[in-house]
Amino acid sequence: MAGRQAPAGGAAPADASEPVALVTAFTPAALTVILQEIADGPKPPVARWFVGTYGISRQVANVVNDTPGCTYAPVFCIQPATSKQTRMKRRVSADVATHLDAAHAGEIPGTSAGKVLPPGDRRAWGLELGQRFRDDMRGARQQGIRIDSWQFDEILGECGRSGTNPHREFVGGALRGIAEGRPELLEKPEQGFVWAAHTALTGLPGLSAGANPGLPDFWTDLDRAASFLVGEEYPEFRGAPAGAVRQYSDPHRALLRSSGAIRRGLGARYVVGMTPGWRPRSVGLGGNVDGKPLGFVTTWRNGFIDARISAQRPRGYAQFNFVKENAQAERAADAVRSLHHAVQRHGA
To answer: Listing from the earlier edge strand, what are the strands of the sheet with 151-155?
Structure first.
């Protein structure tokens, strides 16, 4: 299938009255199910759909962009195991390289040892990593791959800790780098989806600037990068869904009630991040921990969505991790149907 001509920059933000639906991380077989389920949904689409997994793929971009209502949004990860190739060296043409700082062209320190943070110069190395993600998008677009948005995985839980915080230095730099690109090349700013660990969002809204050096800069970095902030809400499918909502919606509530304009703005473009729920042994993903049948999972998840909308209506809804047990066809289809349920309830 021929690739479509890439646009000069990222997609325009979705209309404020239109919910967004996001599907992230999947196997090739699961993608086929996901796109068919999206295509079988309401017509015209009730939401604007964004679909992507780790790395840039012409094949994935083509099939996503050819699905009505869908936008391709590849995922970029700061973890060394997932982004090692990008972290090991800058990959640009010789002509572009002549315009860039040679001091940060090599390995981001710590990558070979599997460490996320470099031992020093963290802000600059974070910027460089984000700019390398933009390098990857620029190169793909030059090859005719259409990329209208992107996803960042993730604001680490450690970013929510108080005090001087090296994780915020590095992650904030990466956010600024991917959003603004390389100034030497006169690139235009582009925003995307920024995923955030629940532990990060639990801590961040309540931190004061005075006791946390660099915190205002981090909020600015996040604000400039995030067209949408995706909060990772991965409850166990157990008990009353409304009870889980009271626990997991706290960060969203804190952002909306904040005294800071940036935090309130991020709350206004908050997306609820969920997961199909069939990998309960995977740390942090919650889900169907009691091995209940599919019908129970459907009912519980939709109950969570309904209660979540009643608590604080989010800007959109996401499903993450369509791999292994989550990738089975009926389970994957059911998780996408839950997004159809969410966006239809959103406008009710």
So the answer is: 70-72, 48-52, 20-26, 316-322, 270-274, 226-232, 192-196, 151-155, 75-77
* Model confidence pLDDT, tens digit, residues 248-301: 999 999 999 999 999 999 999 999 999 999 998 888 999 999 999 999 999 999
Q: DSSP states of 72-108 as a string?
A: E--EEE-SHHHHHHHHH-----HHHHTTS-GGGSSPP
Closest CA to 55 of 132, 155, 114: 132
**57 three-state secondary structure:** coil
Structure tokens at 109: 């320190």
Coil/strand/helix, residue 241 = helix
CATH of 20-346 given 3.20.20, 3.40.1720, 1.10.860, 1.20.950: 3.20.20
Q: Are 342 and 305 in contact (CB under 8 A)?
A: yes
Q: Which two tokens stand for residue 260?
A: 């800071």
Q: What distance in Å separates the CA atoms of residue 39 and residue 35, rounded to the nearest whole number?
A: 6
Q: Tokens in use for 250?
A: 């706290």
DSSP state of 194: E
Q: What is the pTM of this model?
A: 0.95
Residue type, 97: A
From CA 20, how far away is CA 190, in angstroms rounded?
A: 18
